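haha ok so turns out i had the wrong file open the whole time. this is the CORRECT one, sorry everyone. sequence first:
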Amino acid sequence: MKTITSSKPAEEVMGYLEKCRGVYIIGCGTCATMCHTGGKSEVLGMKEKLEGNGKKVTGWMIIPTACDELTKYALEEEAGRIKEADCVLAMTCAIGVQMIALHLKDKKPVYPALNTMFIGMEDSPGHFTEVCLQCGSCVLGRTAAICPLVRCSKSLLNGPCGGSSGGKCEISEDVPCAWQLIYDRLSEMGRLDEMKEIEPCKDWSVSVTGGPRKIDAEAECTTTS
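then structure:
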C-alpha cells in the first residue's frame, strides 16, 4: 500500500515560496520516491529549479519514511541547515508535511510541493490503482475484498448499474466494471448467493465528516480481542 502523490504546478509552489529567500527541501524515500514525485532525482531537480529562480537552497535530504516518528531525528540532524532557511519545502505526502511541521523546532512555514491523491496498490511496476477510501465502515467482507466505493465509478454498494457492458465500465473500455470483478471472484469461491444480501445505506458519519477521527489503538485491540 502506498500513498500516491502528484507534483503541484510550478506556479503554485513558487507562490508559496514568494517571500522566502532560503529554502530547505525534504523528500521521502518511500512512497514519493516510488511515484517519482519526491525521490532524490526530483529533489535535486527542484533544487536546480529554485536556484534558477533566485532562491538559496540551504540544504536537502531524503527522509526514509517521512510520515513516521524518525522524521523528528532526521530534522534534528539537519537543524543547522534548516535554521538558515526561511521555510521548508516538503516533497512528501500530506502526512509527511504534517509530521515535519510537528517536529520542526524552528517554527518555519512548511509548504507542500505535492498533492496527495489516494492510497493505492501497485498492480504493475510503477502503476497504482486506488484501493481504499478509508471510509470507516469496510464492506470488503461481502464484496470479495474488492472495494466498490473506489473501484466502481458510481460507488455503488449493491451491484452494477445498467451501463456496464462486457465486463467494462461505461466511462471507458479500459476500466473494468468493479461489480463484474466482484461477481467473478465470488463465483470462483462459490459465494454468489451472498450477492442477494442488500447492503444498507452507508453510515458516512464514521468517515471524514465532523472533524479528525481519532482512535485509541490499545483500547481498540482490547475491545476486539
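The beta strands are 2-7, 22-28, 56-63, 87-91, 110-112, 114-124, 127-132.
again sry for the mixup
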